[in-house]
Amino acid sequence: MRKLLCITAHPDDEAGAFGGALLLYHERGVETFVLCMTAGTAARNRGTARTHDELAELRRAEFAASCRLLGVTRGEVLDYPDSKLDSADPAHAVRDLVLRIRRIRPQVILTFGPDGGLTGHIDHAMAGTFATLAFEWAGRSDRYPEQMEQGLRPHRVQKLYYHTADFHLPDRQPISQPTVTTRIDIGEARFERKVEAFRQHTTQAPLFERVRKNLGQRLGTVEMYHLAATSSPRDAKAETDLFEGVADE
Ligand SMILES: [Zn+2]
Which of 8, 25, 51, 206 is the most buried (most CB within 10 A)? Predict the structure, then answer.
């Protein structure tokens, strides 16, 4: 069974950044999983929520609705502090991600690069940094051996990708983006569905116009990724398929 795991920072990243790839690979029969590190409670746009807990509940429900539209097999929202992922304990965060990788056993992981993926958000950068360490360490028997005592086995993920693009968003802090290695053409219909998935995040409605503009005018129907690491050494080359060269296990 082919499996894709997407590691994000906030509810709505799964749609805005990775939605096209999630849809496309679901349609190709790949089991898809999303792990979101925060419940997004630092958001300026809070919908009807009066408290932190109410916003967390709303955003978790919106995340679930978005995942349903994207055909995600299983989505999970962890409880790390929104807007403060750079103060999360790395040992704890990476252990949490390694545990999920060893349970899910995906061949491919999608996440953000240390640039913070297009918006340069610090949480994106941290989620991607934790995910990169987890990608490396999930396959090592000397990392978190206590998980093996619970019946889990080390798991080597074959490919790690960072979300990237061949343009900058205006009026942002400068970022240096990972090189584009992989262009995924998601087509018009999947693009519309990705926008619809984003719109499930109704607490974020004030962002809809700007996001639609950024997605539509800039990314359009192509999602871009950077192949950051592979379990078997190889030279870089341009790809159009995240599962290119993936061996069946
Ligand atoms: Zn985000």
Answer: 8
Report the alpha-carbon distance of residue 232 to residue 102 in Å, rounded: 19
From ligand 1's centre to the CA of 9, what distance in Å? 6
- Please give the mean pLDDT across all residues of the chain: 95
* Total domains, the chain: 1
19 within a domain of the structure (yes/no): yes
**Ligand 1 centroid from CA 36, angstroms:** 10
CA gap 120, 134 in Å, rounded: 21
Q: Look at residue 245 and tell me if it is in a domain.
A: no
127-145 pLDDT, tens per residue?
999 999 999 999 999 999 9
Answer whether residue 207 is part of any domain.
yes
Distance from Cα 17 to the centre of ligand 1, integer Å: 8
| Ligand 1 centroid, distance to 27 Cα (angstroms) | 25
What CATH number should be reported for the domain holding residue 190? 3.40.50.10320
Distance 82 CA to ligand 1 centre (A): 10
> How far does the centroid of ligand 1 lie from the alpha carbon of residue 46, in Å?
15
